[in-house]
């Protein structure tokens, strides 16, 4: 109890936060202060649930300060190496010094510098120069802030796509296996959310897969279309570098090419203002928003089917569906996907508006917005793909429930088949149609007004008019005769369109994810 009492005292006496070991004997207070500094700060500030609750470690790191500012340093190293190779007075010792300090960033010093300078890039130039005194004169030589800022953003976008694409491939793979397994299982189709012609569980999954395959191609295209901003100077004219190289245009172009290649890009944008065109952000976030729409639709479908008890998402043995209703199995994973997918879709408005209001060579009103919209789009996409992978790995199908729903609706759907069978047996199409119409209305009254079961088949069997086909009713009413070419469509679609799309990701296709629920 001694610890608790002093812990409470510490919370009550705010002045003790700044005190040292002299306040209480034995230095106990100092220990408690460090605990409160660590945990108090953590829980006294807003933390984005995208990182603290949901996103993968690799995507969270991709947009972290550590990744961002080490990339800045690498870009300064690339620039120095290229300038040295092209004849500027940059020494091997300066480059080596920069490389030896590429990752040991003093974030406290950088923050202090930024509080004085009000300029994040120059704060990090000074911080880097502090640990690289020999290289200090040539760090950021000829460059503008967007050299590190925009090029780093492009690297993060590229690497973000490289994280997302294998995850999307795994979702497609799991759903393909599901579609193949249930390619021939008949189920009610729904149009307007009303029972319609039968389809199969696997064919419905292929509708989801088709949208995901489109998303895959869109993400691949966006990733491949990304270029490097490169070495362009303050307004994109490369004037500072032309001056450094004393008017040698070839060397300026070589510099741009060399740095672009060192950063892992095949091409740089040939023209830029101070920034790369903000339409690039639209092209990057648009396929993510589109994928959000796909996943929202898939998860909504699963939620609707869960209500019918035909299909359910995985449910852990000790998972609680409701604090008040112990029997419930809420589709919380699908609900999470839908919730976050709406956020992902909404984020697309930011780059659209940002691109539209950029003045001339650039304005800085893009910066604060992009610090939020770019990372959040990739973090959100990452979360919903991981969650959807978990869902598709454990989807539960209840064939008996599906069969019961089919038998409840099939008699109405089979009326045209019954008419065709009667005509083949020598009956009159119009007479048969009238007979079926009357019996169907009577059965509908039982279902809708009396709450009874659909007894149309019993009425057909009891009517002497239909005696010529009674021996064939079981075949006429076999659900498999109502699914058309659905199984064949599934097999061909998976073989020709889906499986080839997954080939580039074979090495990563079997990776499982640990989902934080």
UniProtKB/TrEMBL annotation:
InterPro entries listed in its UniProt record: AdenyloSucc_lyase_C (IPR019468), Fumarate_lyase_CS (IPR020557), Fumarate_lyase_fam (IPR000362), Fumarate_lyase_N (IPR022761), L-Aspartase-like (IPR008948), Pur_lyase (IPR004769)
Catalytic reaction list: N(6)-(1,2-dicarboxyethyl)-AMP = fumarate + AMP; (2S)-2-[5-amino-1-(5-phospho-beta-D-ribosyl)imidazole-4-carboxamido]succinate = 5-amino-1-(5-phospho-beta-D-ribosyl)imidazole-4-carboxamide + fumarate
CDD domains: Adenylsuccinate_lyase_2
GO terms for MF: (S)-2-(5-amino-1-(5-phospho-D-ribosyl)imidazole-4-carboxamido) succinate lyase (fumarate-forming) activity; N6-(1,2-dicarboxyethyl)AMP AMP-lyase (fumarate-forming) activity
Keywords: Lyase, Purine biosynthesis
Gene3D superfamilies: 1.10.275.60, Fumarase/aspartase (C-terminal domain), Fumarase/aspartase (Central domain)
All copies of domain Adenylosuccinate lyase C-terminal, residue ranges: 410-494
Main function: Catalyzes two non-sequential steps in de novo AMP synthesis: converts (S)-2-(5-amino-1-(5-phospho-D-ribosyl)imidazole-4-carboxamido)succinate (SAICAR) to fumarate plus 5-amino-1-(5-phospho-D-ribosyl)imidazole-4-carboxamide, and thereby also contributes to de novo IMP synthesis, and converts succinyladenosine monophosphate (SAMP) to AMP and fumarate.
NCBIfam families: purB (TIGR00928)
Assembly description: Homotetramer. Residues from neighboring subunits contribute catalytic and substrate-binding residues to each active site.
UniProt-recorded name of the protein: Adenylosuccinate lyase
């Amino acid at each position: 109890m001694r610890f608790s009492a002093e812990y409470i005292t510490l919370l009550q006496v705010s002045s003790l936060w700044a005190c040292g070991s002299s306040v209480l004997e034995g230095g106990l207070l100092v220990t408690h202060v460090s605990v409160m500094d660590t945990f108090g700060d953590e829980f006294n500030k807003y933390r984005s649930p995208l990182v603290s609750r949901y996103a993968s470690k690799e995507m969270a790191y991709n947009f972290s300060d550590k990744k961002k500012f080490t990339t800045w340093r690498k870009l300064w190293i690339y620039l120095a190496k290229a300038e040295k190779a092209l004849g500027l007075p940059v020494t091997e010792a300066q480059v080596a010094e920069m490389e030896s300090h590429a990752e040991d960033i003093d974030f406290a010093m950088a923050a202090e510098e930024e509080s004085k300078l009000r300029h994040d890039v120059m704060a990090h130039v000074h911080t880097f120069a502090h640990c690289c005194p020999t290289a200090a004169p040539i760090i950021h030589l000829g460059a503008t802030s967007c050299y590190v800022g925009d090029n780093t953003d492009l690297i993060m976008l590229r690497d973000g796509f490289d994280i997302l694409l294998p995850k999307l491939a795994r979702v497609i793979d799991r759903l393909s296996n599901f579609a193949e397994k249930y390619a021939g299982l008949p189920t009610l189709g729904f149009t307007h959310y009303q029972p319609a012609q039968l389809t199969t569980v696997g064919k419905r999954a292929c509708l989801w897969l088709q949208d995901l395959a489109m998303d895959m191609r869109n993400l691949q295209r966006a990733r491949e279309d990304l270029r490097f901003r490169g070495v362009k100077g303050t307004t994109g004219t490369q004037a500072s570098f032309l001056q450094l190289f004393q008017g040698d245009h070839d060397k300026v172009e070589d510099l741009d090419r060399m740095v672009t290649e060192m950063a892992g890009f095949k091409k740089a944008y040939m023209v830029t203002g101070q920034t790369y065109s903000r339409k690039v952000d639209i092209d990057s976030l648009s396929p993510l928003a589109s994928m959000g729409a796909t996943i929202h639709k898939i998860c909504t479908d699963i939620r609707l089917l869960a209500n019918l008890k035909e299909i359910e998402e995985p449910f852990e043995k000790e998972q609680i569906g409701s604090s008040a209703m112990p029997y419930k199995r809420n589709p919380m994973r699908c609900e999470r996907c839908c919730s976050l997918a709406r956020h992902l879709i909404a984020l697309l408005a930011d780059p659209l508006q940002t691109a539209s209001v950029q003045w001339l060579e650039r304005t800085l009103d893009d910066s604060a917005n992009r610090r939020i919209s770019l990372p959040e789009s990739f973090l959100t996409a990452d979360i919903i793909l991981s969650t959807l992978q978990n869902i598709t790995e454990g989807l539960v199908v209840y064939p008996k429930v599906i069969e019961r729903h089919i038998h409840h609706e099939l008699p109405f759907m089979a009326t045209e088949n019954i008419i065709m069978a009667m005509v083949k047996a020598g009956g009159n199409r119009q007479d048969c149609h009238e007979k079926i119409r009357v019996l169907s209305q009577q059965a509908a009254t039982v279902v809708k007004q009396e709450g009874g079961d659909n007894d149309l088949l019993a009425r057909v069997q009891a009517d002497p008019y239909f005696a010529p086909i009674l021996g064939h009713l079981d075949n006429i009413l076999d659900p498999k005769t109502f699914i058309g070419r659905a199984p064949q469509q599934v097999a061909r679609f998976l073989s020709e369109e889906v499986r080839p799309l997954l080939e580039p990701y074979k090495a990563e296709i079997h990776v499982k994810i640990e989902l934080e629920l």
